[in-house]
Write a structure and sequence with these properties.
It is built from 20 helices and nine strands. By secondary structure, it is of the alpha/beta class. Keywords: Membrane, Transmembrane, Transmembrane helix.
């Protein structure tokens, strides 16, 4: 936190001119000491006592109130003139400082008396208070008779940097950054006490000692400035993500788009992120919007380096969450084949001679809206990518296929299997595999609505469903204060540093994004409609990490049990200690098992359902 501050307050023993009223010098020192002790006490409470958000708000308010009083007490005081030096005049700036002192006191009182206002509003009040304090320091530094102007300016800038941090981290400000606020209160309290005692000491007139004290204060303020500016800049970099790649002309459909879904429009060889022993293309093809109207999507094709003339086994892949806006498409990524079970997919292509086709889904490379977690729409995008590859002259693929998907793509793979007979009867599905699928979207939304990951996913749903289902008017019914975070999170991709930025922004949403009333109404009914219930046309594999913080194992257990109860055999495999991403990592035990399971399905080996050995409900 900012150094300097009240420590840079003018001398209570200074001699002022004009008619400005001033605090009696005999009272100034004890008042400063009492204020300083009180601020130190507030800071110590911050540093040593575990508190709720409401208690933090009360203590912060008291500290800001005390800081405002300190500004008022020292507002009209100037540096004591040296011998022969004329007393300074009282400028209008003193009025400005006093007004800011009153503002600080009122803000502090508001925070202390209204602790239930919520973290965002309390953080806003703290930000305003810090800005007011910084302005007071800056104005006072330039009034006639002020001592150490450079130190005052540095302290003011450092305080503004702290204010910027409270903007970036509205929730953490009152929970984690309270330690910094506490240190700030301790610092300015000690400075008040030290300054009061110094001004009463006999050695205060010694020029050498005065220069030493000034240098120490300037160094302290400079260190505080460097630390706070670095923290503010780092916060901005973390939360800002990286600039999205801009889809180039390849993703722009021609004026004459074929009306038949699953028609290949164009293809282009890929050179970035292609695994050794393979070659790849990005494709543009026709599909449909969630409402069934014509649309265009992009995707990728990964094939062996030497595919040969015979039809190759086809792996139809639904990818997981990468974002919801153009620029997030896997085909635009520097690692286009790393998503989900990427290691297993590359092995199937390079080692076993398969062709893997992945849809980007509409809205990620092409015009949207992206059908985020809208099962039927995702499945049509996935099927149309596989249909388009059948018209691809560079390869021959079989109409037999195995379907894979992770997370969002897990839900997508289940839906792709579910609509196979009606939407893609020309294909024979040999198996459907879903890894940590969002199988029961409503239960998932209920379970994680107050968690960071849940808020991030909820923001993606809110940002897309408002366009996919305009009749629901989702964004008009979000919890207060959620609209801004939804917009910011919705503009970030969910990969690399952008993924971290999205999660961090999710952590700063103080409340659940969807109010319970929204979940209990038509919106909740639409969430329930996204649950894939079958039937499925081929053996079904569901994999779940038991340490998954996003897709809760208990929800997956219940979904699998309900499928088994409905007579649908499921090969359900759980993995202790594995989280949402680790489940499909290269070192996961699922990776070799998935490859063997896929080969077994291709070779028509008997499936291994285990509905009789499910976890206890």
């Amino acid at each position: 936190m900012a150094a300097g501050g009240i420590a840079d307050a003018p001398d209570p023993n200074g001699v002022g001119g004009g008619r400005s009223r001033r605090l009696d010098p005999r009272l100034s020192t004890p008042i400063r000491i009492v204020l300083g002790i009180a601020l130190v006490a507030v800071g110590v409470v911050f540093l040593l006592v575990s508190m709720t958000v409401q208690t933090i708000a009360i203590v912060t308010g008291i500290g800001i109130l005390l800081a405002g009083v300190a500004v008022l007490v020292t507002a009209g005081e100037g540096r004591a003139p040296d011998r022969g030096e004329a007393p300074p005049s009282r400028p209008a700036a003193v009025i400005v400082v006093r007004v800011l002192g009153v503002l600080l006191a009122l803000l502090g009182a508001g925070m202390a008396l209204w602790p239930a206002a919520g973290a965002p509003l309390l953080s806003l009040l703290l930000t305003i208070a810090l800005v007011a304090f910084a302005v007071a320091i800056g104005v006072r530094a330039f009034q006639p008779g002020a001592d150490q102007r450079v130190t005052g300016v540095i302290a003011a800038v450092a305080t503004l940097a702290v204010a910027a941090i409270t903007v970036f981290w509205p929730v953490l400000t009152l929970v984690v950054f309270r330690l910094g606020v506490g240190a700030w209160f301790v610092f300015i309290g000690l400075q008040l006490i030290a300054r009061a005692l110094w001004r009463r000491s006999p050695g205060r007139r010694d020029p050498g000692r005065r220069r030493g004290v000034r240098w120490l204060r300037t160094i302290g303020a400079t260190v505080a400035l460097v630390l706070t500016v670095a923290a503010a800049a780092g916060s901005g970099a973390l939360l800002g993500g990286t600039p999205l790649p801009v889809p180039d002309a390849f993703y722009t459909p021609p004026a004459d788009v074929p009306s038949q879904p699953g028609t290949l429009i164009r293809s282009e060889r890929m050179t970035v992120g292609v695994p050794a022993g393979a070659k790849a293309w990005r494709i543009l093809y026709t599909t449909t919007n969630p409402d069934g109207s014509p649309a265009v999507s992009s995707g990728t094709v990964l094939a062996p380096a030497d595919p040969g003339p015979d039809p190759l086994p086809l792996l139809t892949v639904a990818h997981g969450t990468v974002g919801v806006v153009p620029g997030c498409a896997p085909s635009l990524s520097a690692e286009p084949f790393a998503d989900g079970a990427g290691t297993a997919m590359v092995d199937m292509v390079v080692k076993h001679g398969w062709v893997a086709v992945t849809s980007d889904y509409i809205g990620l490379g092409t015009k949207g809206p992206h059908p985020y977690l809208v099962g039927d729409a995702e499945a049509r995008n996935v099927w149309d990518a596989s249909k388009a590859v059948r018209g691809f002259s560079a390869l021959k693929v079989s109409t037999d296929t195995v379907i894979w998907g992770h997370s969002q793509g897990g839900q997508g793979s289940l839906w792709t299997g579910q609509i196979a007979a009606s939407y893609a009867p020309e294909f024979t599905v040999k198996g459907v595999a879903a890894f940590a699928p969002a199988s029961n979207l409503y239960a998932l939304a209920e379970a994680i609505k107050s968690e960071t990951a849940g808020k991030t996913v909820s923001a993606y749903i809110a940002a897309t469903w408002d366009k996919v289902y305009p009749d629901l008017e989702v964004e008009k019914h979000l919890t207060p204060g959620s609209a801004g975070p939804v917009e910011r999170i919705g503009g970030l991709c969910f990969n690399g540093r952008d993924g971290l930025a999205a999660i961090l922004r999710g952590s700063q949403v103080p409340n659940q994004i969807f109010p319970d009333a929204l979940l209990d109404g038509p919106f909740g009914d639409r969430l329930k409609e996204q649950e894939p219930t079958g039937p499925f046309p081929a053996p079904l594999l569901v994999a779940q990490g038991l340490a998954d913080p996003l897709v809760k194992p208990a929800i997956q257990d219940a979904w699998v049990r309900s499928r088994c109860d409905a007579g649908i055999p499921v090969d359900y495999r759980t993995y202790p200690g594995l989280g949402h991403v680790e489940l499909v990592g290269p070192d996961s035990p699922l990776t070799p098992q998935l490859e063997q399971w896929t080969l077994d399905r291709w070779n028509d080996k008997a499936p291994t359902p285990d509905c009789d050995h499910l976890p206890a409900g």
